């Protein structure tokens, strides 16, 4: 079963074999590393430059067309927009209008508008950030990651750790990481609020998987390469 799964991963170009025979090693490909990270490069997102402009999406869809509203809400959350009100959402990133979900592919200006600019008055960028995203929930999710990751180095150091225990830990860790990642807007560094735990969790995750690659179960099969890159 293990070999069949490895073949599936190779066919999906998530892992690659280096060498041959008993000395062959398996390493994650760039595509595999991205998949292991949850499908998004968080470090790259935090380090991206910001042009200082906010994009505000304002809409007024008919109340009877709940399906269209739900579809738009889901798209906005998937694109990591922040919610100021149910019909006012913001993002620090440019918006690709062509990707907006709409009925029959069109939304008129009377229903939806995208504005770009800077806030006026006393409100600062961080005021918008703190209002638009639920940072307490996001940090709670990352704290769950940190609590799970705390057990990683000990498991890696214990040669008697059973494979079933590893699988349980890996499944729990991945579930926690993906849940936190789904909530996180992954804002540019200049906009991250005080006390944000996302980067700390990412660093601990890299350290835990580096330890796993060096000492964890199946090290001979994985070659200890690429797990935390």
Structure description:
- The two termini are 26 Å apart.
- 47% of the residues lie in helices and 12% in strands.
- Residues 216-229 have low confidence and may be disordered.
- The chain has two domains: 2-47 and 133-222, no CATH class; 54-117, Alpha-Beta Plaits, CATH 3.30.70.
- The chain is an alpha+beta fold and 229 residues long.
- The protein has ten helices and six strands; from the N terminus they run H-E-E-H-H-E-H-E-E-E-H-H-H-H-H-H.
- A hairpin with a 2-residue loop joins strand 4 (82-85) and strand 5 (88-91).
- The strands form two sheets. The chain has a four-stranded antiparallel β-sheet with strand order 4-5-3-6. A two-stranded antiparallel sheet has the order 1-2.
- The protein is elongated, with a radius of gyration of 21 Å.
How are the secondary structure elements laid out?
Elements: H1 2-11, E1 15-18, E2 25-28, H2 30-36, H3 42-47, E3 54-59, H4 66-78, E4 82-85, E5 88-91, E6 112-117, H5 125-132, H6 135-149, H7 152-157, H8 163-183, H9 198-215, H10 219-222
Antiparallel strand pairs: 1-2, 3-5, 3-6, 4-5
Helix pairs in contact: 6-8, 6-9
